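Curious: why these numbers?
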Amino acid sequence: MKTLAAILLLASNYSIAAVDNPEKSAEDLCEMEWRITDRSGSTTMDIPQIVDEEVAAFKASGYSLSDFSIDEKDFVKVSTDGALSFRKMLGQMSTPYAEARNFFREQMVPICTKNVLESMPKKH
């Protein structure tokens, strides 16, 4: 969970870069983070591959992590470390991931989105 908190902090560090729709941008960034977390918990796929694919998809949708003042190398490292820790934590749980999945999503995405939006400059 500590690593998940670090990911949320990285995701919430926003730059003054122009973003047309702050709410959608924040949601899209946090949904990417959720997909990394979810795929890490629901598959045995190589985590660096998951992170690379999700970052590539995020960029293909027209975003750059620099839009949020996030260094891509740092993001990849923190996301990979977080996903590895998440997978390890899940291995220690007695509840199957499929049953806990909605709980994790309901906790992660709204907090991430709120933090990203709060870090964005206010429009006057």
